[in-house]
Amino acid sequence: MEMQLQQLRYFVTVAEVRHFTRAAEQLGVSQPTLSKQIHTLESALGAPLFDRSRGGVALTTAGETLLPRARRVVAEADGARDAVQEVVGLRRGRVRVGATPSLCTSLVPLVLREFHERYPDIELHVDEGGSQDLVAALVAHGLDLALIVEPARGTDPALETVPVLRESLVVASVAPLPARIALASLRDTPLVMFRTGYDLRDTTLEACRRAGFTPRYAVEGGEMDAVLAFVEAGLGVALVPSMALVNRPLLHAAPLVAPGVHRTIALAQRRESVLPHAAQALRATLLTHVAKGPLPLGVQPL
């Protein structure tokens, strides 16, 4: 037995108006087409659904049995269609986005504000973490999108990345700094160092190695907020992304002399997955924001 949704919809309409001609007009089909579909449905069920008489149409016992079930099927199908159209039309949905701590306190709030103003009914879930953790969450389907630091060795082959920003690293200090600093001049200055496994730790150590020295630590361990708090407490200086100093009025920043130290921020997603419509809209919002600006000092779009 095979019943089609269209046939059930036709059946429910005829049952409600009790007239084939008016039902056909309401459905926007010809009466012969309607009659043929009802006949096909009756053949599939093996029972007549209507008593047809000159005075009108009445339901048979089989028709009365089918009607409440057909109504539920049609209502469920209509509800499913409406739900999908709401998601496609961005009237509801959810986006799971990840970003590094410095981006979560600078660029990401501005982008999410623009997105929320345009799509107020979309739920936003933000995961703040290091790039390695964000990559793992993306691969495990825990995130739709993530802003990560693109490593020189390349990202996981399961991901597709688009470079969006080039960001300079600056020296952060609670004390006033020169206009520019040579990294080698920090040879004898105690550094506040990020925890093992944090992207900026490796970046700082590699930059110091190229400058010809091994740094000594005032404090070792912690992520962005902790490192900046330790610098604010006067424990040492740190090499941090320029965007990390947004809304940090107690800290002074000095760029490094050329060639400086830079990192590339990339927007990452799973290579083989189709982004949900809401995530596609957030991706477009972010790329437009980066292209139009304004961006914090030390940051250039790619």
* Mean pLDDT across residues: 89
Number of strands: 12
The secondary structure category is: alpha/beta
In N-to-C order, the SSE pattern is HHHEEHEHHEHEEEHEHEEEHE
**What is the count of DSSP helices, taking H or I runs of 4+ residues?**
10
Give a description of the structure.
Helices cover 42% and strands 23% of the residues. The protein has helices at 5-17, 20-27, 31-45, 61-88, 101-104, 107-118, 131-139, 199-210, 224-232, 277-292; strands at 50-53, 56-59, 93-99, 122-128, 145-149, 159-173, 191-193, 217-220, 238-241, 252-255, 262-270, 299-301. Helix 1 packs across helix 2 (20-27), helix 1 (5-17) packs across helix 4 (61-88) and helix 6 (107-118) packs across helix 10. The strands form three sheets. Strands 3, 4, 5, 6, 9, 10, 11 and 12 form an eight-stranded mixed beta sheet that branches. Strands 1-2 form a two-stranded antiparallel sheet. A two-stranded parallel ribbon has the order 7-8. The longest helix has 28 residues, at 61-88. It has ten helices and twelve strands. It is rod-shaped, with a radius of gyration of 31 Å. The two termini are 59 Å apart. The chain is of the alpha/beta class and 302 residues long. Strand 7, helix 8 and strand 8 form a beta-alpha-beta unit.
List the helices and strands and how they pair.
Layout (H helix, E strand, L loop, with lengths): L4 H13 L2 H8 L3 H15 L4 E4 L2 E4 L1 H28 L4 E7 L1 H4 L2 H12 L3 E7 L2 H9 L5 E5 L9 E15 L17 E3 L5 H12 L6 E4 L3 H9 L5 E4 L10 E4 L6 E9 L6 H16 L6 E3 L1
Parallel strand pairs: 3-4, 3-5, 7-8
Antiparallel strand pairs: 1-2, 5-11, 6-9, 6-10, 6-11, 6-12
